[in-house]
Amino acid sequence: MGIMMRFASRYWSVILPLLGAVVLAVSWGRGLNPGVAILVAVFLIGATLSAVHHAETVAHRVGEPFGSLILAVAVTIIEVGLIVTLMVSSGEKAASLARDTVFAAVMITCNGIFGLSLLVGALKRRVAVFNAEGTGAALATVATLATLSLVLPTFTTSEPGPVFSASQLIFAAVASLVLYGVFVMVQTVRHPDDFLPVEGSANPSAEEHEEPPTRNQALLSLGLLLVALIGVVGLAKVVSPNIESGIAAAGLPQSAVGVVIALLVLLPETIAAVRAARRDRVQISLNLALGSAMASIGLTIPAIALASIWIEGPLMLGLGATQMVLLALTVVVGALTVVPGRATLLQGGVHLVLFSAFVFLAVSP
């Protein structure tokens, strides 16, 4: 028994994706009772954690700032897969699912993960230090993407309601891809130093002194990452009816489905960001937070624009008044936080209060 436990603890990141694939094959296309749904959800979380683990392994091989980019893109692929599969299965009920999930991802990353990273960093060193140039550029990109994709549909007049016309949706999708692509080029090619920890601010740990994985180990992790991602998307599709029925039974609004999806997908990334902040690498934490927000919009909007060819019904992207107020306040507070290049417990607390307000208003609009 002890040998089995040691084996499982050492190779959990290999075992969980494979078990997730087996559970997916067994449960696909079947209705689940609550007990089985909980078991499937456990494997879903396990597959998500293993996906992030393998993304970090690949990231260690390629180094920063590529590492944060790989992790953000991996998480966004999970998110896009969840959104599209739920939209296909739910029909018109999911007209606002993409908007709710993307907005939730922005609030979670720009307030929840962002604030938690600053709080942990400030507790560690009294002041959390980061690179204002790179972080400011990332925040500006997130604000632009969010405004183009989530705010403008509320005010356009070509179509009734908070929706884009076909041409407007195409423009938003192309603009999102282009802007995200330009940011990635700046982050990885033109100005990568702007996204690295400030010199002297980091306290290297034993983990960072470890030799990077070999090429074969990185390729194995890449393969297991793909298996884990397939498992996450497939298992989410299997358990989605139970999530929706549970939210309805609790008397919560339909928009809470998007919040649950975003929380589920971003939980492992939150853990990764906190781990980086505890190692005095707050810049890496902020790269993860803002990179995920950016990828959530820059990759999700084009994906659902393409999927809308096959999905019937309207695609509601425009935010309501309460959501726009929260987004505007997040951008303003974020800019004031980023400009000095350093933050205390207060800034972290402000962002976490904004995140708490978002969760409360999502449950009690």
Strand percent estimate: under 5%
The radius of gyration is: 20 Å
Find the count of extended strands (DSSP E, 2+ residues).
2
CATH superfamily: NCX, central ion-binding region
End-to-end distance: 51 Å
Largest sheet: 2 strands, antiparallel
- Can you tell me the number of structural domains? 1
Note down, in words, how this protein is organized.
The structure is a single chain. With 365 residues, the protein is mainly α. The chain has a single domain (2-363), classed as A middle domain of Talin 1, CATH 1.20.1420.30. 77% of the residues lie in helices and 1% in strands. It contains 13 helices and two strands. The chain has helices spanning 2-10, 12-27, 34-62, 66-90, 97-125, 132-155, 166-190, 206-209, 215-249, 256-278, 282-307, 321-338, 345-363; strands at 128-129, 342-343. It has a two-stranded antiparallel ribbon with strand order 1-2. Helix 4 packs antiparallel against helix 10 (256-278), helix 10 packs antiparallel against helix 11 (282-307) and helix 12 (321-338) runs antiparallel to helix 13. It is globular and about 55 Å long. This is Ionic transporter y4hA. GO terms for molecular function: potassium:proton antiporter activity; sodium:proton antiporter activity. It comes from Nocardia yunnanensis. The chain crosses the membrane at residues 35-54, 66-89, 101-123, 135-155, 167-186, 218-239, 245-267, 288-311, 317-338, 345-363. It is found in: Membrane.
Write the layout of secondary structure elements.
Layout: H1 2-10, H2 12-27, H3 34-62, H4 66-90, H5 97-125, E1 128-129, H6 132-155, H7 166-190, H8 206-209, H9 215-249, H10 256-278, H11 282-307, H12 321-338, E2 342-343, H13 345-363
Antiparallel strand pairs: 1-2
Helix pairs in contact: 2-3, 2-9, 3-4, 3-9, 3-10, 4-9, 4-10, 4-11, 5-6, 5-10, 5-11, 5-12, 5-13, 6-7, 6-11, 6-12, 7-11, 10-11, 12-13
